Amino acid sequence: MKKVIHIVGARPNFMKVAPIHRAISARGSLQQLVIHTGQHYDAKMSDVFFADLGLPPPEIHLGIGSGSHAEQTAKMMVEMEKVFLQEKPDLVSVVGDVNSTIAAALVTSKLAIPLSHVEAGLRSFERHQPEEINRVVTDRLSDLLLTPSRDADANLLKEGIDPKHIHLVGNVMIDSLLSSKEKADQLPTLKTLGLTPKGYVVATLHRPSNVDNPKLLAGLLGVLMDVAKQLPVVFPVHPRTRKMISEQGLGPKLEQTPGLKLVDPMGYLEFLSVTSQAKLVMTDSGGLQEETTALNVPCLTMREQTERPITVEVGSNEVVGTDPARIREAANRVLAGDFKKGRVPELWDGRTGERIADLYARFLGVAETKRAFG
Ligand code: UD1
Fold it and tell me: What is the pTM of this model?
């Protein structure tokens, strides 16, 4: 049987791999293995997602952990090479734009193993952003480039990628969202946090460009404290952000702000239960821009650019930059009821995992019984 290896490592990977894994399992015509690099290792950043998404525990765990970019990526590469030489996969499937993605892409292509990149073609055009470097290199090395939207196809074509390698499959993360929504809706999270539907804001911040800069971080947290004067703000704090808040001595001020609820990182279902009923989401995350678009919840993205322009052109997202005055003004507007109503982009339909499974079967020359694509 032909063998596919999936690589996961960081929190935003799990909800992308789960639907592909499930669709391949349902077909039963390919063998598959999940390798976890260990880039994220806290239970709240990793383990809980496997349980929430019904993704079986990884067959292989490399246990790499944190480090500088070079250190982390290099360690992953050394360990992955050993596993690939032993397991001899016919295809390696990577998702997103994290360091685990680029590490796997480099090892796979040097071993002349076919490489598939799910979420290909996204570009922020910010070359200093670590994820942008990971995206550009991974796409360059991939044999299959699976895109979530037509803007991604256009970016790849502009970079000279042969169109025969590009496949518009839709947004796989939305498969996880749609299949989990009912379960998330049944959780008592709002009650536990003392919130009412559409009566609160959700905030997340973790981009190094925002949180590693003390002045910028203080400005952004200042906006959240102001917003909390109007409506409660739920703020699940990423470990990187938690560390910076503590180093800057900002913890006590935040903890003492009535209405601002700093909580630990949430599991997938728990987080979905709060984002889906929020009045507003304020974030610098990539994935959350897409999830709010699928949920049609207003989103203010606290960055200068987005690699996901479809969430702005079609969805409910607005890119508001990092100037506190501008963010405050936008938040006030949304809270006063003035916000754009988005639509759901094409092929964000919950069937992307099936289309990918079909594509892999065809690519590997495996006869298919069920077809969802082409
Ligand atoms: C990574 C991804 C980013 C993604 C984010 C989601 C890269 C380059 N960045 O950023 O694209 O949006 O994941 O969270 O791959 N830490 C813990 N526990 C953990 C993991 C990390 O405490 O389980 C702390 C460590 O101090 C670590 C820091 O967080 O040094 C940063 O972790 P790292 O994986 O390097 O990057 P993220 O900021 O999480």
Answer: 0.96
